[in-house]
Specification:
The protein folds into 3 domains: 199 residues, Aldehyde Oxidoreductase, domain 3 (Alpha-Beta Complex); 306 residues, Aldehyde oxidase/xanthine dehydrogenase, molybdopterin binding domain (Aldehyde Oxidoreductase, domain 4); 143 residues, Aldehyde Oxidoreductase, domain 4 (2-Layer Sandwich), CATH 3.30.365.10. By secondary structure, it is α+β, with helices and mostly antiparallel strands. The longest helix has 26 residues. Helix content is 24%, strand content 25%. The structure holds dioxothiomolybdenum(VI) ion (MOS). The site of dioxothiomolybdenum(VI) ion has 11 residues, from loops.
Length: 743
Amino acid sequence: MTTYIGTPTSRVDGHAKVTGAARYAAEFTAPDLAYGSVVGATIAKGRIISIESSAALAVDGVIVVLTHENRPPMAKTDQAYKDDVAPDGSPFRPLYDDRIMFNGQPIALVVAETSEAAQFAASLIQVKYKEEAHVTDIYHLRDAAIPVKTPSNPMPPKIRGNPDQALAAAAVRHVAEYFVPNEHHNPVELYASTAVFEKGGKLTVYDKTQGVQNVQKYLCGVFGMKPDDVRVMSPFMGGGFGSGLRPQFQVVLAVLGARAVKRSVRVVLTRAQMYALGYRSAMIQRIALGANTGGTLDAITHDAVTVTSQYEEFHRQETGWSGLLYKSPNAKYAHRLAHLDLATSSSMRGPGAATALFALESAMDELAVKLNLDPIELRLRCYSDRDQNEDKPFRSKALRECYRQGAETFGWSKRKPEPRSMRDGGDLVGWGMATGVWQAPQAEIAVRIVLTADGHAEVASATSDIGTGTYTIMAQVAADTLGLPLDNITIALGDSTLPHSPVEGGSWIATSVANGIVTAAEAIRDELLRFAKQMPSSPLANCSPDEVGFAAGKLVSKRDGSRAVSLADAMRQGKVDRITQEKTTLPSHNHSHANNTHVAHFVEVKVDEQLGVIRVTRAVSAVAAGRILNTKTAGSQILGGVVWGIGMALHEETLIDHTFGRIMNANIADYHVPVHADIHDIKVIFVDEPDGSNPLGLKGVGEIGIIGVAAAVANAVYHATGKRVRELPITLDKLLGSLDVST
Ligand code: MOS
């Protein structure tokens, strides 16, 4: 029975958020709280010769200045610094030694009685360096970039058929290079950690993280603490987007500070300092498509170079999406890494796919132009019901329906194919579309349910709610599964002492935790049924566990709804007032099918013909992502993804001054993200997609919203102006020459 699943249920934590009751990492406090301020390196590579702290120490209220020379002990092996989602390589160690590996690297922490004293004192620290030559420009290393070789690569480079030969023989070819710059996450909440120091040195750390247990394990490794000595909490997050998948350096500094001064310490990074942490890697991509005149593909190749640091090999499956999405007998993809003197790049919403699909879907649009085909028609002719990389069918793939419903809602049939053929007064109007694809994974997770005789349940797992609505979907699933009103469900998450959960990311938590709740609820049912059967002339005497379900505070026979036992009566029989069950749920071991989510984006742009100003005036996104748990929160995920895709297309770019190897626009005045004035009409459609990969038929919707949006915008800009821009962001200077200012 579903009362809540599939409905637009409002956030169960919404009241706490709007009233300020929800507390974030930098809002937790302690009576003895001290404040840490971070000093960042001003060179990109080299050694620290000396750090002069005397002026800082003389500031009223300053307690200590920690550097690599006087910090408390930290682990000496790479292994100790490896978090659950660390890439291959040697993880960064904050304040470890005199080596500088990226500009902005933390090199000192000032701890003071007030935040103001700490910040002022930090400004007085004098550092002498021995500088070494650095490289921060991906284009400098493109030829020296090295192939991805890590065994952890989820979809290793593959070749099928003979793509080079097929490309050479193809009737129609499109070959081009596309570029996406480095981009930063910029969540609203600053990166922050409050380490509360308790008697005996135990710590409770309130941290802005997408994985409390990941951070807890990491801190134990770095500081040699026992699991019981450190508890990590992250009940709420002001946006994660991948920035909090790995432990951030301020959590190490807060704990270092607390251990040094034996009291509680809070460290909040400034917006500028946040840019010294991971980011979406720039990507130079070369796509080659070979087609026959009928509009099917003979060959597709995708080569990419992405950015990582000198010390780690971060990458995602960037190019394999091209081998997967469209039917092509011959395909090849390869991925190389440029090791630059920057911090390690990281996951950022739709990592890999958001960048890869910009190139692929721009290239498909260019091919459609060459073939004189409607862009949707080309995609339908190249439609694949199989994941060709893995050579297996999709469990479900309602992408055709996304194209159909999206096009209909958008009014695509009224599009005139010629560029520059549609106008609105002084504006050139362009309509573009693109496809997006993402994975639909399920991860191992543990869930504990405590059901009380009065019909209330607490559902607990150490997962996070990074703003996506995890509290809400957990409550919906628990309410339906246990047959209780939503208000009777309490959710506990974001606490490392709760049952085991992976980091929240990759769009895998909704699927994992929701099915985890179903498993734990089944265990509760089994125990209740055992009690119910012991009742004299029990109405459920002959029922097997499969034959009963929960409804309206009762265990009910599925065959005969009149046969029921209330939770209270069953528990009374068992002489308990609550039942607790904790169960671990594993993903299905059936790998016969591929699991992916898909989207078709349609956008309208208007380009001012005199000034080149681009506005995205309309967008329609049709999503196929299995069963949707909550059309409101899921809809918001897609809406946010489309907004972000517009930012990616038109605004976002992390600019580095390569002379100093320093980010120039490390603030949200100079790093442009979309604001309300940039965003107009966005419609989200969820198409029906029954899927049997897991009991609830879920796939997850976190990432899919952004993937493909930038290409849809670029394709619309081409349609409006006749100018193809292959380098993001599409700023108006890149349109110069395509505009007819004489009219
Ligand atoms: Mo998301 S990049 O998986 O947090």
